[in-house]
Amino acid sequence: MQQAASSRPLVGVALVVGSCASLPFGAAVAAQLFPVLGPWGVTALRVAIAALLLLVIVRPRPRGWNRGQWTAAAFFGIALAGMNGFFYAAIDRIPLGPAVAIEFLGPLVLAAVLTRRLADAVWVGVALAGMALLGADGMIGADPLDPLGVLFILIAAGFWAMYIRMSARVGALIPGNSGLAVGLMVAAILLLPVGIPGAVVVAGDPRLLVLALLTAVLASVIPYSFELAALRRLPQRVFGVLLSLEPAFATLAGWLILGQEATVLRMLAIGLVIAASVGTTLGVRRERREQGPFTAPIPLPD
């Protein structure tokens, strides 16, 4: 079944686009909770709600897992906790669009390392140019970037690269969404110390509870489920470059929900990242013909 599914790369492309659209809108909703819960409190609450939802829906049975499966799920959870926590800490200090642009350095560097074809390298370069423009816009515009926020997003970028590798590992070793459900549970446990006060506050306010639920679905359940399915259909380097659509959606979400300015330079950057994504998409079918119906994730040590 895995070969049959992975023989439809455009399905994987559509899943990545869906993830890119959902995640930043979830982050924009989450930003409205920062004044009450703080970024780490929002992270903990969002991950905990997403974990509970998936545990109920998926009902994983990890009793029969081997050591490699448990290790992959545990490191997946660590990546989820670090990526989400530092990302929210960053967007509490810098605008959403530039934050996602800088964070994209993680998957971009990963894609460059894994690239073996000249065409892939060219599209990585185009995506990098878009990231540079978005970063420059944040530095020279009316809203300069906070240095601590930049540090937080760079740490999140490292966890994002780790997330991509561990997503591929979990997708290869654990069928369905069981690995995602357990990974989110691990992340929720790691974030529990900063999440308890926020849970108490939200439990007494129906409006905050609705926002927290919406954040969990848009920023966790939908994108992570879509990305895990996409990584079963696409090579990791193609997946990494396709994520270049996310800064474009982040800029749109920041403008629509948070009232953050969309400048000419930022729109030009969006055009570049979309061009990189389209170029990568058109190259997927040719790559499949050259490599066969299924490109397995690069194995990681247990």
Summarize the topology.
Layout (H helix, E strand, L loop, with lengths): L1 H5 L2 H23 L2 H25 L8 H25 L4 H8 L1 H10 L3 H23 L6 H27 L4 H26 L2 H25 L5 H7 L2 H14 L5 H28 L11
Structure at a glance:
The protein is an all-alpha fold and 302 residues long. It contains 13 helices and no strands. The chain has helices spanning 2-6, 9-31, 34-58, 67-91, 96-103, 105-114, 118-140, 147-173, 178-203, 206-230, 236-242, 245-258, 264-291.
Helix content: over 70%
Anisotropy-based shape: globular
Biggest sheet record: none
Cα-atom radius of gyration:
18 Å
Topology as a string of helices (H) and strands (E):
HHHHHHHHHHHHH
Low-confidence stretches: 1-7, 292-302
How much of the sequence is in beta strands?
under 5%
Number of strands: 0
Secondary-structure-based class equals mainly alpha
What does this structure look like?
- With 302 residues, the protein is an all-alpha fold.
- It has one domain (2-291).
- Helix content is 81%, strand content 0%.
- It is built from 13 helices and no strands.
- Helix 2 packs antiparallel against helix 10 and helix 3 packs across helix 10.
- The two termini are 25 Å apart.
Short descriptors:
302 residues, mainly alpha, 13 helices, 81% helix, disordered C terminus
